[in-house]
Write a structure and sequence with these properties.
- The complex is a heterodimer of chains A (about 260) and B (about 130).
- Chain A starts with a strand and ends with a helix.
- Chain A has one domain: Bira Bifunctional Protein, Domain 2 (BirA Bifunctional Protein, domain 2, 2-Layer Sandwich).
- Chain A has eight helices and eleven strands.
- With about 260 residues, chain A is α/β, with parallel strands linked by helices.
- In chain A, about 30% of the residues lie in helices and about 20% in strands.
- Chain B contains four helices and nine strands.
- Chain B has helices at about 30-35, 85-90, 105-110, 115-125, and strands at about 5, 10-15, 20-25, 35-40, 50, 55-60, 65-70, 75-80, 100-105.
- The chains are: A alpha/beta (about 260), B alpha+beta (about 130).
- The interface between A and B is medium-sized, with 25 and 21 residues.
Chain lengths: ~260, ~130
């Protein structure tokens, strides 16, 4: 288990992305090594956490009319389309496969290091002392970027009156039999397709000097290098897309099936 | 926990009962590793499972995990109170935190699971 195999896929719809991530977890199990896929979404899509209620999504006016797909991983709902999403799969035998925090912190801490090179200050969120007793006030929020969990990457925490800052990266896991599949979303900018509770500022909105779109690949590249170093792996960028569209399409039916997307 | 309790490598425990059924739950190690449980989905009574099939799912603050059947059989009872009282899993994982009872297809499957000392050794070998 020496390599971190990485693919950068073009934007796709929700069922295709979830199918590809399921295949990625299988790839990690088959290879016995870590695999990571960066991707985008088109059209704008809301992904629900594995146990979120479909009725709650239907009742949320801010996302009315936006396609929905359910992730196998946990956490809150994410509006995709102005973010950079990753899926990373690691065999359970890797130190990051043992418990949730190590894998989160490896990927999230790596982003903080990469952002620092771009002059952007961000840190792993830790609850203020008062919140240890009361819990995060928005822990049950429908949207991921309204919640705060220890280890989320946030900006502007010190400047915020409530110590919550702005969350720019959140991740969630599905712990499978042989592998751990971790999803994460780096919010690049606010999504113009949604408003109200669904709208959150992203990296380009919060960075003092903004973030040009053409800087994202370089940022992601440095992020990957720090992830690989943190996991003790050699970065192995793969040419082309992770899986042929036809192969993904064969798997995607499960993730467009209402029995999956409205199972709760 | 009784001496007859056995463990799967995927961290479920299985305990034979006097009526021939087998009670199943997840180990204290698994509960601690998952941390901050928020939701649980258990199977319906009557469902048939093979060893290794998913018996249910548990969500902690940021992770969803499957609970696997340690042996094959039919679900004959579920701890319906557990999803509403997940703190029970941390307090009493081998007692009130039981999840399901199975009517086993093959008692030999239970004997093939790990005993407590072998399971302890497995846990100690886990990466931290």
């Amino acid at each position: 288990m020496n390599n971190l195999h990485v693919w950068w896929d073009p934007p796709a719809d929700g069922p295709s992305n979830m199918a590809a991530d399921e295949l990625l977890a299988e790839e990690a199990a088959a290879r016995g090594t870590c695999c990571l896929r960066f991707y985008g979404w088109t059209p704008t899509t809301v992904s629900l956490g594995g146990f979120q209620r479909g009725a709650d999504a239907a009742a949320e006016p801010a996302i009315r009319g936006v396609p929905i797909v359910r992730r196998p991983s946990g956490g809150g709902a994410i509006v995709h389309g102005s973010d950079l999403t990753y899926a990373a799969a690691v065999p359970k035998g890797h130190p990051c496969g043992a418990g949730p925090e190590a894998f989160y912190d490896a990927v999230h801490g790596a982003l903080c290091k990469a952002l620092a090179e771009f002059g952007i200050a961000a840190a792993l969120w830790r609850p203020p002392i008062a919140a240890h007793a009361t819990g995060d006030r928005d822990a049950g929020s429908f949207f991921c970027f309204s919640r705060r969990s220890p280890g989320d990457v946030c900006m502007g925490v010190a400047e915020s009156a409530d110590g919550r800052g702005h969350k720019i990266l959140g991740s969630a896991q599905r712990r499978l039999a042989a592998t751990v599949l971790q999803h994460g979303s780096l919010l690049l900018r606010h999504n113009e397709r949604v408003s109200g509770a669904a709208s959150h500022p992203g990296l380009a909105d919060l960075a003092p000097d903004g973030l040009p779109a053409d800087a994202v690949p370089a940022l992601a590249g440095r992020w990957l290098e720090f992830v690989a170093a943190g996991l003790g792996l050699r970065l192995a960028r793969q040419a082309g897309r992770f899986r042929d569209e036809r192969v993904v399409a064969e798997r995607s039916g499960r993730f467009s099936d209402p029995r999956w997307n409205h199972r709760r | 926990m009784t001496a007859a309790t056995r463990f799967a490598k995927s961290h479920e425990w299985a305990r034979p009962e006097s009526d021939g059924s087998v009670t199943v739950g997840i180990s204290a190690y698994a509960v601690e590793a998952l941390t901050d449980l928020v939701f649980m989905q258990l199977p319906e009574v009557g469902r048939r499972v093979k060893a290794g099939d998913s018996l249910g799912e548990i969500e902690s603050v940021k992770a969803v995990s499957d609970v696997y059947a340690p042996i094959s059989g039919e679900v004959v009872a579920v701890n319906a109170a557990l999803p509403g009282a997940l703190e029970t899993l941390g307090r009493d994982p081998y007692g009130a935190g039981w999840m399901v009872r199975l009517k086993p297809d093959d008692p030999a499957e239970l004997a093939a699971l790990l005993d407590e000392s072998a399971y302890d050794a497995l846990v100690k070998s886990q990466p931290h």
